[in-house]
Amino acid sequence: MKARYIDAHCHLHEFKDEDIRSILESLDVLIVAVSDDLESARRTLNLYREYPDRIKPCLGLHPWSVGEVEAPLEQAREIVRLAAREGVDCIGEVGLDTRFVPQTIDKQREVFSIFLDYAADVDAFMNLHTAGTWEEVYNIVTQRGLKRANFHWYTGPHHLLEKLRESGYVISVNPAVKIQKKHQEIVKMVPLEMILVESDGPYQYRGLNLTPLLIPDTIRVIAELRRESEEAIMEAVQRNAARVLRI
């Protein structure tokens, strides 16, 4: 049976085991669990084995991790080998970031290319980090012919939304939409066929402790901003997730 809610981008590996159990017991949610490095990729796979009907694993090397881990290129290759062995068709969190870690952008591009090669080979879904690099990442993934991609917590250029739509890509809306004005602007104008919902938990944003438990309230806020029903938003999210995640 399909879950009522879908969290399209969550760092589940950072939660304690008891908190994960509590979340899954409290909310009928499917969590798309992204990873940040090889260690978290392994934990994410272990969580998936424990909750195979509630978690979709994504493996990747976060742009912020590129400057923190030893031998990031080799680690990226090892994550790809792990994904191939386990038959994982979701890559993330990967991408480029010139806003927070511009000092490693050249190495980030090399790492990103490794994951792009794998995604293109197996037609994987990509959970993308694009802070300050929205258009560059869009150009790269389209040039590589990728069909399934989520631009998570999108606050990028308005004009790029139509290009994303034409390419079949989606964006995920974060609970921060409750207070982040530029995210609200995106939600009001983005086509409904492009919307997913995420928590990005356990990240904290301006006093918000992000968690999958905020997904229902995020849907409520989206509905209010768009002046549509919550049911319409939920149905659209289910359709969009089924298409891009193949769930």
CATH superfamily membership: Metal-dependent hydrolases
- Give the name of the CATH architecture: Alpha-Beta Barrel
Whole-angstrom Rg = 17 Å
Structure classification: alpha/beta
Helix content: 40-55%
- Examine the coordinates and then state which fold CATH places here, giving the name of the CATH topology: TIM Barrel
| Secondary structure tally: strands | 10
Strand order of the largest sheet: 4-5-6-7-8
Gross morphology: globular
The proportion of residues in beta strands is 15-25%
Tell me the number of helical segments per DSSP (H or I, 4 or more residues long).
Answer: 9
Average pLDDT for all residues: 98
| Weakly predicted, low-confidence segments | none
SSE run? EHEHEHEHEHEHEHEEEHH
Q: CATH first level: which class?
A: Alpha Beta
How many distinct domains?
1
Distance between the termini: 11 Å
Largest sheet: 5 strands, parallel
Structural descriptors:
single chain, 247 residues, alpha/beta, TIM Barrel, five-stranded parallel sheet, three-stranded parallel sheet, 16% strand
